[in-house]
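We read letters as residues; the integers encode the fold. Take this protein.
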Amino acid sequence: MENATTGNKSDEGGNFLTFLVLKGGLFFLISYVVWIYVDSNYDLGPRLVSKNSSLRPYFLQKCLGLRSPFVPTVWAFNPHVQTVLSAVVCPATGPRFEREYLELKDGGLVALDWPTFGEKTVNNHRSVVIVVCGVVTTGNAVARVCHGAWRRGFRPVVFRQRGHNDVPLTTPRLQSFGDPSDFREALEYIRATNPGSNLTALSLSTGCGVLISYLGEYGSSTYLTAAVCISPIYCAENFYSSQDISGLYRWILLQKQKASLLSHVSCLQKVNALDGTSALRTESMGEFEEMVFSQTNGIRTMEDYWEQNEPTREIDEVAVPLLCISSKDDPLVPTESIPTELFLTYPHFFLALTEKGGHCGFFEGLQPESRAERLAFEFLRAGQRLNMTTHVNGNGMLV
């Protein structure tokens, strides 16, 4: 009787082991099939688009994310899934934020959110990275980016625009799409209160309009050593008027804008030219931009408005390395709107272009982690090292 019991246990153990082997074999078979499919249908990328200067091999050497193949998470090949992941994926233990308000020269307010990670003392030796968010950037995305920055030795701070993210609106003016003046004042304050710190910047989605505009408008006096834009809007006028973008995404962005208008209606009523009722009724992003942002900034025509707010209007003045990370399947930025010629012309511009990734997604691995964010911090660190060891002349050559 005792031998029979032992035999049954051995059989059960053997069956369980067989089950594990079969399950593991099936998993690796599926993974292999997916890999073959991806390898045969896509350029695994990311592909680096840039001018053939001595800066190109430098960043290729320093940034592993530019050399290793990007294979999206198996169950997240769809661009919309990648885009949703960018909004919902967050670290297991998110940071707490300590808000600091900064009064601007015109009486307006912006906020600086400094994350803390369970450490009471601030590490002043860390390089500061300023995170510039877009209108639809979620709290989860901000927490994830800040957590990734801290893990890689940076001290992050989130720049909050006037009237956004519970920042009180104290003047009847909203920051327009590509106006970098508020960001300039905030950066000067960060620089003054963190003497000796190396400053870099990272922006997401529509927030890239402010950062790219800033780099062009202030040229060699930006105080930054490097910058990264993830899923930037290259042509804002086309973005706000395009019908190529899914109606759902346009509706989400418009509702976020309308919510901001509603929360500050009492302050904005002081603008005589503002017709808030019509703005709240419009179904067009372009019309809303004209009715609200153009009017609150005192700009009469949309032609003048975009002339002052297009991110690439002074692109030839950019004097620090800038990496843009874009995907060909971005549901908000059509492939044809990505200005590859720009990256082939100017030595400080670098484009990491992938086949897949959605908008601000680029998640890979079974436990999704953003390749774009990891690559961003590799690039910023490489830019800092470049700044410390050499200087760059007008042709982008290291000397």
